[in-house]
Amino acid sequence: MAVKAYDLTGRTAFVTGAASGIGRACAVLLAEAGATVHGADRDAQGLHETVTLIKDGGGTARTHHLDVTDRAQVRRAVESCGRLDVMAAVAGIMHSSPVLETRDEDLDRVLAVNFKGVLYACQEAARLMLARGTGGSIVTMASGAVDTGGPGLLCYGAAKAAVVQLTKTLATEVGRHGIRVNAVAPGWIRTPMTDRHDEEAQAHTEARMARMSPLGRVGEAEDIAHAVLHLASDASAFTTGQILRPNGGVAMPW
């Protein structure tokens, strides 16, 4: 009975940022749970690889080559689903610069993807869910960066903090319609976004992050995908407006 609560057979899920990293892991796992997955990303080749993984595993998937910062593109893609049970707004970018060196264009670019892109996905998902009257689950992607300051993380942390506020606010507005809205705030996860492009530097960073965790390791994309599946499924039917923190036992101190 407990396993059945995670069964998404017959449901439709939309995942942004599905071409790689956490987004890909989420798309694959939601498909394994039985959902028909609509994957969206700017990276057409990465999307194709994700869909291939899903189909090779016996799942069903469609691709939407789009830019999450374009509201019209997001609207068309979400509306094309016909029905929507799960929205996983995962797409995001990383930027690092000291506060005194942060340029307008840096902040605008990060906010456009990491906040506005999530906002558009949430808005269009909620509209479709409300129109159908069948409820649903919206999962946003925050970050451990919302819990503590970190050098160079002004743009990224501010955008993710805005996602947390969006999540909590939307949860209060649509809960009475059976729509749940929650966020996942990962700790350090091994993904293309955290790749230092230098083997020695990568090993040093991961070792430092692993020492901060009581579990003694950094996270994998699949660790976050399982958190998303939990929030997407009936196993979290009484959970909304919450921030789930799979971070290995730390809040990403620096």
TrEMBL record:
Protein name in the entry: 3-oxoacyl-[acyl-carrier-protein] reductase FabG
Highest taxon of the lineage: Bacteria
Family statement drawn from the similarity comment of this UniProt entry: Belongs to the short-chain dehydrogenases/reductases (SDR) family.
Lineage: Bacteria, Bacillati, Actinomycetota, Actinomycetes, Kitasatosporales
Oxidoreductase in keyword set: yes
Transmembrane feature ranges: none
Keyword Oxidoreductase: yes
UniProt organism field: Streptomyces asoensis
Family annotation (InterPro entries): NAD(P)-bd_dom_sf, Sc_DH/Rdtase_CS, SDR_fam
UniProt-listed Pfam families: adh_short_C2
Keywords: Oxidoreductase
